[in-house]
Write a structure and sequence with these properties.
Elements: H1 3-10, H2 14-32, H3 44-65, H4 68-90, H5 97-107, E1 110-114, E2 119-125, H6 133-151, E3 155-160, E4 169-174
């Protein structure tokens, strides 16, 4: 594991976490075709809660309008760029993908456990308390883009979700052509 990723796994200062969350907010808002609300005067936790409500509101709207497919593609593409940036900034090697993902998800209030072969388990998710199953499926386009960007390729598929009534989410990241 590279030095920067090792240090980040130990501690990420709140101002850095907030800048990354603001970057995610802007990318998500762009995918929805709306302006991102300002979270400048909010604490990190307040900004994270605002992000959850913002994504729920706009995902619900996309579902009502029947535009979830197009929005999902844009969410994926936005998150893919973020994942690629994280991969570059943190020097993520193929063997580091799950550690880097756990770091990113920890900053988002998500208990992410990933195995090197690609199996993922999420036992606690801040967003599951305010998302419906349909909203979660749409917003999971962000997860897919982020993880594929971190891995440098592949595909993410969920086999179960907390929002469907399960005790945890289970997913698999297939890192096609990526040496683990």
């Amino acid at each position: 594991m590279g030095l920067l990723l090792s240090l980040a796994c130990l501690y990420v200062p709140v101002p850095v976490r907030k800048r990354k969350l603001e970057m995610l907010f802007r990318a998500t808002a762009d995918a929805f075709g709306v302006d991102a609300p300002s979270v400048r005067d909010l604490s990190y936790d307040e900004a994270l809660r605002r992000y959850a409500l913002f994504t729920r509101e706009h995902a619900d709207e996309a579902l009502r309008r029947g535009t979830e497919r197009e929005v999902g593609v844009r969410l994926y593409q936005s998150a893919l760029r973020i994942g690629e940036q994280f991969r570059s900034d943190l020097g993520v090697r193929p063997s580091d993908v799950m550690r880097a993902a756990a770091l990113v998800y920890r900053m988002l209030g998500i208990d992410f456990r990933g195995e090197p072969e690609g199996d993922i388990r999420i036992s606690r998710c801040l967003f599951s308390a305010c998302y419906t199953a349909d909203v979660c499926r749409l917003i999971s386009s962000l997860d897919a883009g982020l993880l594929v960007g971190l891995a440098g390729g592949g595909a993410l598929s969920f086999s179960q979700r907390i929002t469907d009534g399960h005790d945890c989410c289970r997913a698999r990241l297939e890192m096609n052509g990526v040496t683990k």
